[in-house]
Amino acid sequence: xxxxxxxxxxxxxxxxxxxxxxxxxxxxxxxxxxxxxxxxxxxxxxxxxxxxxxxxxxxxxxxxxxxxxxxxxxxxxxxxxxxxxxxxxxxxxxxxxxxxxxxxxxxxxxxxxxxxxxxxxxxxxxxxxxxxxxxxxxxxxxxxxxxxxxxxxxxxxxxxxxxxxxxxxxxxxxxxxxxxxxxxxxxxxxxxxxxxxxxxxxxxxxxxxxxxxxxxxxxxxxxxxxxxxxxxxxxxxxxxxxxxxxxxxxxxxxxxxxxxxxxxxxxxxxxxxxxxxxxxxxxxxxxxxxxxxxxxxxxxxxxxxxxxxxxxxxxxxxxxxxxxxxxxxxxxxxxxxxxxxxxxxxxxxxxxxxxxxxxxxxxxxxxxxxxxxxxxxxxxxxxxxxxxxxxxxxxxxxxxxxxxxxxxxxxxxxxxxxxxxxxxxxxxxxxxxxxxxxxxxxxxxxxxxxxxxxxxxxxxxxxxxxxxxxxxxxxxxxxxxxxxxxxxxxxxxxxxxxxxxxxxxxxxxxxxxxxxxxxxxxxxxxxxxxxxxxxxxxxxxxxxxxxxxxxxxxxxxxxxxxxxxxxxxxxxxxxxxxxxxxxxxxxxxxxxxxxxxxxxxxxxxxxxxxxxxxxxxxxxxxxxxxxxxxxxxxxxxxxxxxxxxxxxxxxxxxxxxxxxxxxxxxxxx
Length: 669
Ligand SMILES: [Zn+2]
What we know:
Layout: E1 7-11, E2 18-23, E3 28-31, E4 33-36, H1 48-54, E5 58-61, H2 63-68, H3 72-77, H4 80-85, E6 90-93, H5 97-101, E7 107-109, E8 114-117, E9 124-127, H6 129-139, E10 143-145, H7 157-178, E11 184-189, H8 195-206, E12 212-215, H9 224-237, E13 244-246, H10 252-260, E14 265-268, H11 270-276, E15 279-282, E16 285-288, H12 308-312, H13 315-323, H14 327-354, H15 357-367, H16 383-390, E17 392-393, E18 396-401, E19 404-409, H17 422-432, H18 436-441, E20 448-453, H19 459-471, E21 480-486, H20 490-496, H21 508-516, E22 518-521, E23 526-532, H22 535-538, E24 547-550, H23 555-558, H24 564-573, E25 580-583, H25 588-597, E26 600-604, E27 613-617, H26 619-623, E28 629-630, H27 633-641, H28 655-662
Parallel strand pairs: 4-14, 5-6, 6-10, 10-11, 11-12, 12-13, 13-14, 20-21, 20-24, 21-23, 24-25
Antiparallel strand pairs: 1-2, 2-3, 7-8, 8-9, 15-16, 17-18, 18-19, 22-23, 25-27, 26-27, 26-28
Helix pairs in contact: 1-14, 6-7, 7-8, 8-9, 10-14, 11-14, 13-14, 14-15, 17-19, 24-25, 25-28
The structure holds zinc ion.
Zinc ion binds at residues 302, 305, 307, 309-310, 336, 339.
């Protein structure tokens, strides 16, 4: 029985690039083509309508994952994967070989079968070539893959040969197991990075009557040059009348290079996985929405794209969604990325037909970003780079000076508590200035509520906790309720991975806060809780504060928290209580914003290179006896000469707001 009926329609001059078509049990597939990855019978965060719109012709699903969940019985009950996920076009299933390979330590490979531990319930699962085909038959994919033995690109020649030979024997068994099923079956060429093995494997596999041939064992740590050389070696020997599939590859540029070398089909998780990280593939190259520069950019993320995302939203909006961790960001960027991949494949096909492949290829090579990687499997990453990766999480990295760790925000370069010792600064600026211990010694029924705005690596919160625990000879007279606000836990998680440089985190509290969002110490009468999300929103969920440690990133990085409207909201929450706010800045326009919002503003103590810091007092705090030195005529005179007169976040010449500063009661002599 002949399946797929591949037709070679055109070949590009001066290149191996080719255009073709074949027919599966569900639709006609035009090549070259990209297959979005639907690991669990779903392409991450993408609706089927959007996938259909993108022009996706084949989805890839993972046999290994579907075998564990939902299991073969459920799939069969719904008439296979097409009925289960209501997908009208083709599905290709992998054999499970790659997943077995990518779970080191939990597998054994024998002649008869591979055995691995289920990540779902820890039972041992055996996958033989026959079981893999039987499962893929039950899934009902249009194209099945033969079970192969995939090894890392770093193995030696002997190990590579032995894995390759096992792959060949399993290929024969897979073909026999397929029998007269109408489902197509592809064989896989292995051989790691060794040219002689790749040649031998291609010869052996192509002698078997598969419906198509795949190049496996790439995108597992080799360099792109090695991958391209291997692709060239193999495609030269593959029969012209069968589709060719390069498994697990890759970036848009990888696709261009592989089509140039004669490959027809691809799959990769990058369009959706990088979408989650805020990265878009565009006709202008890669765009990384973690870069602060996109904050106010109008226009679509790709001016040449007509997808739903690009028709509907500006870059600034997508940037915002990503920054606030809105899942819609993942979905919209994923939609665009899938669309971009499909569009790129269609354009390649057009240029092959039009006889303009070579100029197109050369122009695109410069455009499509070549600096991509495959994440942790990439062994071409140098040791130094890997070391750096370990010190990075999300938009944060650890830097170490004199054995002390600091957290740096990568996009802005801003360092949290940049001077001397973060823990020491936290103690001086927040714990000591606020007379925290003294206030806890005064008996009160109500707990003392401290807001910790910008948890970061928990330097301020832990300074408070350690101070209270260190001082409490007996049970404190007053309970401490500490509420931390943070929208991005990456900095704390990163610091917790490196407690040798962050000594203040060698304590049970931070991990407990991370996992359960609260921590309590009955002996010292401390309750610490975490409110995740934007302070602008979450502050309404917290008990009203007595003291605020106001320590978010600066105006440059986290501007919204420092504006006049933000301080006005805060002032109204504090209107009927004596509240003291401590912050590290002494910026004139921030002080002006606090004054215009209704706070009384006093000088805070200096720390490191800063001559001063700032203390904001609610009216009731200012009226009560205190030892703070309010800004006076001298500051006002300086402010009037300043070019930063306008409260931050308000128009430069808003007379009423300038007057609110100038006429503030604290300046009435
Ligand atoms: Zn788009």
